[in-house]
Amino acid sequence: MQMLKDYEMVIGLEVHVELKTRTKIFCSCPTDFGAPPNTQVCPVCLGLPGTLPVLNGKVVEYAVKAGLATNCTIARFSKQDRKNYFYPDLPKAYQISQYDLPLCEHGWLDIETADGTKRIGITRIHIEEDAGKLMHDDEKGTMIDCNRCGVPLIEIVSEPDIRSAEEAKAYLQKLRAIILYTGVSDCKMNEGSLRCDVNLSVRKKGTETFGTRTEMKNLNSFQFIVKAIEYEYKRQVEAIEAGEKIVQETRRFDANTGKTYSMRTKENANDYRYFPDPDLPPIKLTEEKIASLQAEIPRLPDARKQEYMERYGLSAYDGEVLTTNMAMADYFEAAAAQTRYPKLVANMLLSEVMRLAGGEEDVCRIQPSRMAALADLSGDGIINSATVKKLIKELWETDFDVADKVEREGLAQVSDEMILLEWVQEAIRQNPKSVADYKKGKKAAAKAIVGKVMAVSGGRANPTVVDRLVELELNQ
Amino acid sequence: MKELTSRSVYEHARALKKKEYSAVELTQAYLEEISRREAEIHAYISTNAEYALEQAKAADKRIAAGEGTALTGIPAGIKDNMCTKGIATTCASKMLADYVPPYDAHVIQRLQEAGYVLLGKLNMDEFAMGSTTENSAMGVTRNPRDPSRVPGGSSGGSAAAVAAGEAAYTLGSDTGGSIRQPAAFCGVVGMKPTYGRVSRYGLVAFASSLDQIGPLTRDVRDNALVLSAIAGHDRRDATCVDRPAEDYLASLDGGVAGMRIGLPEEFFGDGISADVKEAVLAAADTLAGMGAQLVQVKMPSLDYALSAYYVISSAEASSNLARFDGVRYGYRAADFADMEQLYQKSRSEGFGAEVKRRIMLGTFALSSGYYDAYYKKALQVRSLVRADFDSAFAKCDCILSPVAPTVAYKIGEKTSDPLEMYLGDAYSVPVNIAGVPALSMPCGSGEGGMPVGMQLIGPAFSEAMLYRAGYAFEMERKGE
């Protein structure tokens, strides 16, 4: 696939995020996910004749927060427009959205890539209403569930700054982290509260002009997004190389085949006839209002990451991982404040704890003070890493005083060379095969001896000292 | 009981309070008048005697308990584009022939709170598009003053019912003259309030930025009384202005002495028939004789208002009426092969010719490539018209003009030429474009003895002043 190297992909993402408001954008129906069909509806969200929309003020506040958190300029004056099209899941036959005066514009966010930090532009963020859901049934035919009609959304449109599937994923993860920090959405991809459309084109490396793009709609997992991008990139390059023209169209990604398919819609013929919604007055925001919303936004991932790097000497990567989940970052900060070895806390969180954690809401079941105590004992050389692991596992299940337990159960690591040397010599005597292997040049065989010593010590032997002693003894 | 149904709301309220007759007796009188005249007039699309009498009984109890309001027990008719819970609301369209709303419009709730009696739902041009009520899928309404003539439109049923004594008062809606012009044609009083004065919640939208509900009544005092009951803030309509309700009756007296009344030459130019011009100018002289000061004003942008109106109203209508697609409620074509055809057939068969004409016009005006030339340009004209009114109101307190260029014409006379029909709206649409209030009331008679209507146009929220001027004029005419 030499030719793939001659091309680069150009990606822009449109992300739809459902806002976590209690009620819908234009009526007071609840927004809860998973209710029986058509139980969270009223004449307004059903678009019955004579009904009128009244904008939920929280929607504007949440969208502005998302905009401020992604470095956008907030419009002091914006309006809502009607996007007209017929579809059975759209009761009014128009979607109330924003066309030429969105709430937020000209933002950006930074992602970590293999080549360092990269800035991705955000063109705009606007508010709009969600449509309903069509449900297909072999016997009953197609049915409409209008519970989702009028659930508030923000659409976040990126600049075409993304050049790989990895960057796309990093952008989405960062965007999701920031939105979760602001608390305006729960960003659950499996419940559709975060959906992504990918616009992708390819061009020969070094060229400035964009190729013809295709759009892949409603991708609902990071994995699918990566696969869809990789497939579509290859497809476009191959088509161009074969002398074909790329058609501007909407394509559907099939998760089963891993391929994208043309939806053959008359997409280009669609004229949405946007015009300002006469039922809704313009949205005006004062400086005071914007400032008060700014004040409600917590410290965001990048600020925290920067602090961890400077204060605790964490790497950019570790900082990124720790701050992706605000609960994790909060936990880290709570534990780090109580220990002399914050970096060790970070290491424990990034290895053992992450393995045990059950997901985003189950970050760490251990009290931060216990984690701090573990870091202190480990940093002072009193317990070794094997004991740290063991204690983390135990603390996950039941809470106890760490220093007490180490004392009571004699878990302190053994660094006394006289004792360790005895254990090393015994292990060498009992494992002639490993010794023979080592002598034949298989240096890894030393690891087996070290393992035996650790086992004999009940995991308490100081691994650094044991390594040195085994090396010495084997080379005698 | 002929005499009872020709009394005013105000007189009914006093009589009911004094127990001269009961709400049930009054309701029966109107129901009798309806059954006597409907075959000829056809003001109503539907009536419900049982429901009306039920409400009347409740009203009598309320009055007996001393808890009546000025409208308790007084029978009314409502234009069939305002939603009434459990009662069909058809918009005079095949599309909604069987549509029964699950909720009440704001104005209906207000009238219910006041203890009104609903006689029935009134005929109109389909979806309020038209000037004669001939565009109704439910049949033509005739003008009670001369049944060979149109009652005007689109609130033709609302005006005819009041003129024929088939309701004590009615509600209509006015997007480009739909209350004022039929009021003028039938010789009754109609008010188009300031945009935002009355909630539109529950009014089936034609053109959202222009629609406004208002009363049609026998006289000015009744009109003030009914508007007082329905005006006021409603949180369910974001365009409804948050401003305290007013008691328009309180300021009726006071006359026109010292009031500056503007006469824009643009309202009296080409196209106006001699009888209408003469009657309105005579009214101006009457007002001057009563102490008002007549002022000449110029409103040059009015020439463009009509075109702007047809672009804006049709554009909004094309979007507002898109929801009638045959999917969830309303008319659905019997046979269709796929979704596309379901839409096409249901809409082609469900809408009448005038509605389809406006939907196509509006769709075109909003289409990519034409938006700037039509819709955007129309919005610019709208700003100019508003500015014209602002500068006129710097020189005068209110403006006097004809409502329509002619008196009511014969049924069928203009149906073949939509454009000529549209030209009849030239004096009424600028008021909607500017969002200001205007009172339409009889000021004389013209060709065939038909009533001529004049309108008093004021700045936003000057309804009280318009009623005061109109009431003084009405008193003066009665005294003649």
What does this structure look like?
The complex is a heterodimer of chains A (476) and B (480). Helix content of chain A is 40%, strand content 20%. Chain A is α+β, with helices and mostly antiparallel strands and 476 residues long. Chain A has three domains: 2-290, no CATH class; 299-408, no CATH class; 417-474, Orthogonal Bundle (Arc Repressor Mutant, subunit A), CATH 1.10.10. In chain A, strands 2-6-7-10-1-11-12-13-14 form a nine-stranded mixed β-sheet. Chain A starts with a helix and ends with a helix. Chain B is built from 16 helices and eleven strands. Chain B has a domain at 2-230: Alpha-Beta Complex (Amidase signature (AS) enzymes). The radius of gyration of chain B is 21 Å and the shape is globular. In chain B, strand 7 (260-264), helix 9 (274-289) and strand 8 form a beta-alpha-beta unit. In chain B, 62% of the residues are buried. In chain B, 41% of the residues lie in helices and 12% in strands. Chain B has 480 residues and is an alpha/beta fold. The interface between A and B is large, with 30 and 44 residues.
**Number of domain modules of chain A:** 3
Largest sheet of chain B: 11 strands, mixed
DSSP strand count of chain B = 11
Structural class of chain A: alpha+beta
Question: Overall mean pLDDT score of chain A?
Answer: 91
Biggest chain pair interface: A-B, 30 and 44 residues
Topology, element by element:
The complex is a heterodimer of chains A (476) and B (480).
Chain A: H1 2-6, E1 7-18, H2 57-69, E2 73-74, E3 77-78, E4 81-84, E5 94-97, E6 104-113, E7 116-129, E8 133-137, E9 141-145, E10 152-158, H3 165-182, E11 194-204, E12 214-219, H4 222-241, E13 250-254, E14 259-262, E15 275-276, E16 283-284, H5 287-296, H6 301-312, H7 316-324, H8 326-336, H9 342-356, H10 368-379, H11 385-397, H12 402-408, H13 417-430, H14 432-439, H15 445-456, H16 463-474
Parallel strand pairs in A: 12-13
Antiparallel strand pairs in A: 1-10, 1-11, 2-6, 3-16, 4-5, 4-15, 6-7, 7-10, 8-9, 11-12, 13-14
Chain B: H1 2-5, H2 9-17, H3 23-41, E1 44-47, H4 49-64, E2 75-79, H5 106-113, E3 117-122, H6 156-163, E4 169-173, H7 180-186, E5 189-192, E6 213-217, H8 220-230, E7 260-264, H9 274-289, E8 293-297, H10 302-320, H11 339-350, H12 353-366, H13 372-395, E9 398-402, H14 418-423, H15 429-434, E10 438-445, E11 451-457, H16 463-479
Parallel strand pairs in B: 2-3, 2-4, 7-8, 7-9
Antiparallel strand pairs in B: 1-3, 4-6, 5-6, 5-10, 9-11, 10-11
Helix pairs in contact in B: 3-4, 6-7, 8-16, 10-12, 10-13
